[in-house]
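pipeline: protein-struct stage 2 | run 1193 | FAD linked oxidase N-terminal domain-containing protein
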Amino acid sequence: YCVDHSIRFFIVGKGSNCLFDDRGFDGCVMLNRIQFLERIHGGIYRVGSGYPLNKLGMQCSAEGFAGFEFACGIPGTIGGAVFMNAGAHGQ
């Protein structure tokens, strides 16, 4: 809709890494709430872009998967992490 009607837009996950100008934003700010976690098989998941990154980190850890523990301390979403190339503590 925004593209078809030439409306500026900005997509926000949890907004944990966003700053907005005091003058506001002349456009549409969309809040991403696409939150799902679907186990495909084994250790393969399909995850919504609005799913909390720290929640996925805890889920992986609870299921015995290693290497994603750093995500437990990041307060963003999967989509934001991919977009920003997120990491913590050098990972």
